[in-house]
Automatic annotation (TrEMBL):
UniProtKB keywords: ATP-binding, Nucleotide-binding
Organism: Platanthera zijinensis
Gene: ABCC3
GO (cellular component) term, any one: membrane
Keyword ATP-binding belongs to the record: yes
Keyword Nucleotide-binding: yes
Annotated protein name in UniProt: ABC transporter C family member 3
Length: 390
């Protein structure tokens, strides 16, 4: 027994996302899940994986499970590392997987083959290439159960049938495979078809039986045929309305070849890895890092002006600190240098005034030199500081 599933699940919504599920898949069976948009196909696979909270019932899986999502998941690193995904390299098995997933031609185009480094999330690869790498990774794991969520919708129309034939009908012929698809051409080869609608499985039959039932599956087939007929009409209209001269087409092809050749030569000259390996240094930060930072502003033109401004600023800072230290008294008992200097400047003035007073020759009462100094407004304290006190 491969899968046994009975129960209901919920994703924090009031009503269950999928419900009333009851089916069993035996080992080696291929099961296809069909349905309209938002019918619960991807949620069914999430239930099997245990990613959707279970309300009731049970899920039983026998063996290792591999899952391929609709949106490719790619790691940044080499293509080979993305395919091996931690497994040891088996050259024969690896070549078989590459051939089944149509990756050999793509690897021949890339400059380093499977050693080409992929950027984060594979932004330097196309959607089809990323999907095929994801399928190759699942095939290389050699699991027991494979779950595919519409894997062929991303690839080209001619690549999808090749993947289905080589992968699902080839390498995985003895595995249990369950896949979601909208493409009717992949259904005749399956052992069981599950048709879903509004979160329920409305039909579970083989392809021949479900074709004759005339129910929901036939609506899907009719919608698919209508879409194909519209595409065919558009292609036919384009063919009838397009007339291109063979000579001009030949010239255009020649020009395109020349352009491609020139681009190819340029690529050969500049051949290198798509993603360069980052460099790492240890130790102190070198002067070049600071110099590069300085040169980001006007290519270093302002560097001399900045240096002059910094030097002038430092001179002013040091000068102001020196002035404060020189002018301020050390203690209350000591006079400040500024006051002492001002008093010393009064000495010549005092001597000159004394000389004028003593030699004035004025008549009157005799006045002592100290009284004469007091008369011109000098205090005793100043005389004491000047050294003129008797």
């Amino acid at each position: 027994m491969g899968i046994k599933l009975v129960g209901k699940w919920d994703l924090s919504s009031e009503s269950p996302t999928v419900r009333d599920l009851n089916f069993r898949v035996l080992h080696g069976m291929r099961v296809a899940v069909c349905g309209t948009v938002d019918s619960g196909k991807s949620s069914l696979l999430s239930c099997i994986l245990g990613e959707v909270p279970k309300i009731d019932g049970k899920v039983k899986l026998c063996g290792m499970t591999a899952y391929v999502a609709q949106s490719p998941w790619i790691q940044s690193g080499k293509i080979q590392d993305n395919i091996l995904f931690g497994e040891e390299l088996d050259s024969d098995k690896y070549d078989i997987v590459l051939e089944a997933c149509s990756l050999k031609k793509d690897l021949e185009i890339l400059p380093f083959g499977d050693q080409t480094v992929i950027r984060e999330r594979g932004i330097n690869l196309s959607g089809g290439q990323k999907q095929r790498i994801q399928i190759a990774r699942a095939l290389y794991q050699d699991a027991d159960i494979y779950l595919f969520d519409d894997p062929f919708s991303v690839v080209d129309t001619h690549t999808g049938p090749h993947l289905f034939k080589e992968c699902l009908l080839g390498i995985l012929v003895s595995k249990t495979v369950k896949y979601v698809t909208h493409q009717i051409e992949f259904l005749p080869s399956v052992d069981l078809i599950l048709v879903m609608k509004e979160g329920k499985i409305t039909q579970r039959r083989k392809y021949n039986d479900i074709i004759t039932s005339g129910s929901d599956f036939m609506e899907l087939v009719g919608a698919h045929k209508d879409a194909l007929s519209v595409l065919d009409d558009m292609e036919l209209a384009n063919d009838n309305s397009t007339h291109i001269n063979k000579d001009s087409l030949h010239e255009a092809n020649e020009e395109a070849k020349n352009v491609e050749n020139s681009k190819f030569e340029e690529i050969e000259i500049q051949k290198g890895q798509l993603v360069q390996e980052e460099e790492r240094e240890k130790g102190k930060v070198g002067f070049w890092a600071y110099w590069k930072y300085i040169k980001t502003a006007y290519k270093g033109i302002l560097v001399p002006l900045i240096l002059i401004a910094q030097i002038f600023f430092q001179v002013l800072q040091i000068g102001s600190n020196y002035w404060i230290a020189w002018a301020a008294p050390v203690s209350k008992d000591m006079e400040s240098p500024v006051r002492i200097a001002a008093q010393n400047l009064q000495i010549p003035f005092l001597i000159n005034n004394i000389h004028l007073i003593t030699n004035s020759g004025l008549d009157g009462p005799e006045i002592s030199p100290r009284d004469q100094l007091n008369q011109i407004g000098l205090l005793d304290g100043s005389m004491d500081h000047c050294g003129l006190a008797p």
